Structure formats: structure tokens, C-alpha cells
Amino acid sequence: MKAKHNRTLGRPRSKDLEQPTNEIILQAASRLFLENSYQNVSVDDVARMCNVTKATVYYYYDSKSELFTETMVKMMDRIREKMHAMLQEESPLRQRLLNITKAHLKATVDVDIEGFMKGSKNALSSEQLKRMQQAEEDMYKAIEQAFVDAIAKKQIPEINPSFAAQAYLALLKVGNHRTKDDQPIFTTTEETAEKIIDFFWNGLFSF
């Protein structure tokens, strides 16, 4: 996001705001991108939702691609912080992963993750893509570190922590799968979370 100093055309007066305008813009953009995908959202759409001018949006963000990048990075930062907090709880790793799985599924039940990104990659610069990739890696590191700590404490057997983290995260994506009739695999998010963790922890065929 650009650093701003002197007030220019489009910049709102700070004394009139209860919440920083850039945060209002990010919140609106997040909702619009999640509901409609990158390619179906315009800067005009974001400005209308925020009840500000298009110039105000461009005051904080040079382009739609920059706004999208900032939206994604902030969202992944929040997810990482929440994951980290849940992983610090005093409970077995299996239970902590189950809690994260339930929270993730509930938060994304109405979100088309693939659709959210549709049309964005070709529109983003290499630097913007790198920022998003780094934010994603940082988010995954919280899960990987949990496996490292559990191995060190002899709570789980030796395993490649990076493989374990990626396998778990891959299963999270399965939880969002919908049939052609837009039905989930299991009836509730709680059941889906339990099935994911059972499979991850015990394997497909446990005895």
C-alpha cells in the first residue's frame, strides 16, 4: 500500500472518520472479491460499497490488482494469527487441529476459494504474486511449527513436518467440496471436520 503524506484530491478528512478509510476499503473489497471473484469486481463497486469516491480508493491503492493483493495478504495474516493462537492452546495436537478445521470450514462454507482467485493471477505483477505467496507460506508455517513442536515433545512419531502440514492443509480443501447439486460431502461442518481429522490422524482404513 502506498505511503501518504499531504492531503490530495480524493483523500477524506481524518477528523471525520471513526475507522481509517483504508481499512473500510479493505473490508469492502474483501467481501466483494469473496462473493464475486477478482474479475467480476471493479474499483467502482468497491467505492460504492464504501460510500466514497473512486478517487478515494485510488488515493490508497494504485490499482485493483494492488487492492486485491493487499486484501489477500491481510486476510492470510489474520488467518495465521488465529491459527497461531489456537495452536498455543493447552490441548493435544489432534484436538487443536480439529478446532482449526471446524473454524476453517465454518468460515469458508459459503466461499468459493477457486472462484475467488479466478482471473487474478494474470492481472497481478510478479511482485504482487510474490507478496501473496510469502503471506501464504507464513500462514502454513504456523501449522508446520506445531508438528515440529509436537515431535520434539514426543507427542507424535517422527514425521517430515512440512509433509504433515501440507497433507493436513490439502484435506482442509476437501472439506469445501460440493457435489454437482451443490451439496457437501457430509451433512454438517462438525461431521466434516471430524472425518477430516480421523482420516488425517488414522488413515483411510484404521482398525
What is the CATH architecture annotation of the largest domain? Orthogonal Bundle
> Percent of residues in beta strands?
under 5%
Give the overall shape.
Answer: globular
What name goes with the CATH superfamily of the largest domain? Answer: Tetracycline Repressor, domain 2
Which helices and strands appear, and what pairs or packs with what?
Layout (H helix, E strand, L loop, with lengths): L20 H16 L6 H8 L3 H7 L3 H24 L5 H16 L4 H5 L8 H27 L8 H14 L14 H14 L5
Explain this structure to me?
The chain is mainly alpha-helical and 207 residues long. 63% of the residues lie in helices and 0% in strands. The longest helix has 27 residues, at 126-152.
Please give a quick description of this structure:
The protein is an all-alpha fold. The chain has helices at 21-36, 43-50, 54-60, 64-87, 93-108, 113-117, 126-152, 161-174, 189-202. The termini are far apart.
Describe this protein with a few key phrases.
mainly alpha; Arc Repressor Mutant, subunit A; Tetracycline Repressor, domain 2; 9 helices; 0% strand
